[in-house]
Specification:
Helix content is about 35%, strand content about 30%. It is built from 10 helices and 17 strands. A 9-stranded mixed β-sheet has the order 16-15-14-13-9-12-11-10-17.
Length: about 325
C-alpha cells in the first residue's frame, strides 16, 4: 500500500515513525512547505510528547511543497493528513475526489459543517475516511473502553478525564484560533472523544474556564450529564508557555469497580469490591495500532468501526458546544448533536 504523508510537523514525524514498523506500506509521497524538512531534515521537530526529531530518507518519495497538489497528483493509495486543522476539510475532500483513502489527524475539522462535508464526500467516493483519535488505540485507554462496555465496572457513576500541557511554542499555528480552533479544542478533543466512546452523547452540559491564547492560557472544566445520573468531568488545557509538563489521566467509578490512570506514574489500575490490581497492557504503540487499523480498513474496503468518522465528527460537535457553554459561565445547556 502506498501512502502520502501530508504535513511534516510533530504529528507527521510521529506517523512516519509508526509506518516504519508496518509491513507492506511504502511512503510514496511527502509534503511540506519547509524546504529543509522536505529534504528530510526533521531534526528540529518538537512536540508535547517525548518523540525526538530526526533525519528521514525521502529519496524514494515524491516531494510536494503544496498539500493540495500532493493529494491530487500523487499515485498513492491513501493520504495521511497531518496539517493545521483549518486545512483538514478542503485537503481531505480533494484527496477523496482524487480517489484516495484519507486518515486525517484530530480534530477531524474545525466545525460540524466541515465534518459533514468530508463524510458526504467519502460516501460519494466510496473511500475510507478515518480521523486519528488515537486514544481509542492507546494501551492505557483501550482497557477502560473495554471495561465500561463489558460491564466490568457496573453502572457508571462518575468519570474524570484530565489533560494538561504548556502552550505549544514549537508550532505557531496552534495559537492561531482560526487555524487550530484554540488550545482547549485541539487538546481536549481527545478526552471528549473518549467520553463519547465510553458513555455516548450526554443530555446536558455546562462549562467554566478562561481563554487568553496570547498569554498561553486556555482552560476549561466541563461537565457532561446523562439521564442515568452519570456525570463526566473533562478538564485541563494550556497552562502558560514553555515549562508546564504534559500529563493525561482518568478516573472512572462504577457501581462495582473503578479504574484509574495517570501518565505521571500511575499505570492503569482496577479497584473492585474484592481486590485491586494493575492492568496488563498491550505493548503496541498507540500510533502504530491506529495506523495499522486504518491500513487494514483500506485494504479490506471496510469502513472503520472502532473509530468511525461519525464518532469523530460528534467529538468536534460536542467540543464546540462545550466552548459555547464556557462562554455561558456554568449555565446548564441541552446537548444536541
Amino acid at each position: 500500500m502506498r501512502v502520502a504523508v501530508v504535513g511534516l510537523g510533530f504529528m507527521g514525524l510521529t506517523h512516519l515513525k509508526a509506518y516504519k514498523r508496518i509491513q507492506g506500506v511504502e511512503i510514496a509521497a511527502v509534503s511540506s512547505n519547509d524546504p529543509k524538512v522536505l529534504a528530510g531534515d526533521l531534526s528540529g521537530i518538537q512536540g508535547n510528547l517525548d518523540i525526538a526529531g530526526e533525519a528521514v530518507d525521502f529519496s524514494s518519495a515524491q516531494k510536494f511543497a503544496d498539500a493540495m497538489e500532493c493529494v491530487t497528483e500523487t499515485q498513492a493509495d491513501a493520504v495521511d493528513l497531518c496539517l493545521p486543522t483549518a486545512m483538514h476539510a478542503p485537503v481531505a475532500i480533494a484527496a477523496l475526489r482524487a480517489g484516495k483513502h484519507v486518515l486525517v489527524e484530530k480534530p477531524m475539522a474545525l466545525n460540524a459543517g466541515e465534518c459533514d462535508a468530508m463524510m458526504a464526500e467519502a460516501r460519494k467516493a466510496g473511500r475510507i475516511l478515518m480521523s486519528a483519535q488515537v486514544l481509542r488505540f492507546f494501551p492505557a485507554y483501550v482497557p477502560l473502553i473495554e471495561a465500561v462496555h463489558s460491564g466490568k465496572l457496573g453502572t457508571p457513576r462518575h468519570a474524570l478525564f484530565r489533560r494538561r500541557c504548556a502552550a505549544p511554542g514549537w508550532s505557531a499555528w496552534l495559537s492561531n484560533k482560526s487555524a487550530s480552533g484554540g488550545g482547549v479544542f485541539d487538546l481536549l478533543i481527545h478526552d471528549i472523544d473518549m467520553a463519547l466512546a465510553c458513555f455516548g452523547v450526554p443530555t446536558h452540559i455546562s462549562a467554566t474556564g478562561y481563554e487568553d491564547l496570547s498569554a498561553g492560557i486556555d482552560l476549561i472544566t466541563a461537565e457532561m450529564f446523562y439521564d442515568t445520573g452519570l456525570s463526566v468531568t473533562i478538564t485541563g488545557g494550556w497552562h502558560l508557555p514553555a515549562h508546564y509538563p504534559f500529563s493525561m489521566e482518568y478516573t472512572v467509578v462504577g457501581q462495582d469497580g473503578a479504574m484509574e490512570y495517570s501518565s505521571t506514574g500511575r499505570p492503569p489500575h482496577f479497584y473492585g469490591r474484592d481486590g485491586h490490581y494493575d492492568i496488563q497492557l498491550d505493548e503496541t504503540d498507540g500510533y502504530q495500532a491506529e495506523i495499522e487499523y486504518f491500513v487494514a480498513s483500506c485494504r479490506s474496503g471496510q469502513p472503520p468501526v472502532r473509530c468511525t468518522p461519525e464518532s469523530s465528527a460528534n467529538a468536534v460537535k460536542l467540543a464546540r458546544l462545550i466552548e459555547q457553554a464556557r462562554a455561558r459561565k456554568g449555565e446548564i445547556l441541552p446537548c444536541q448533536l
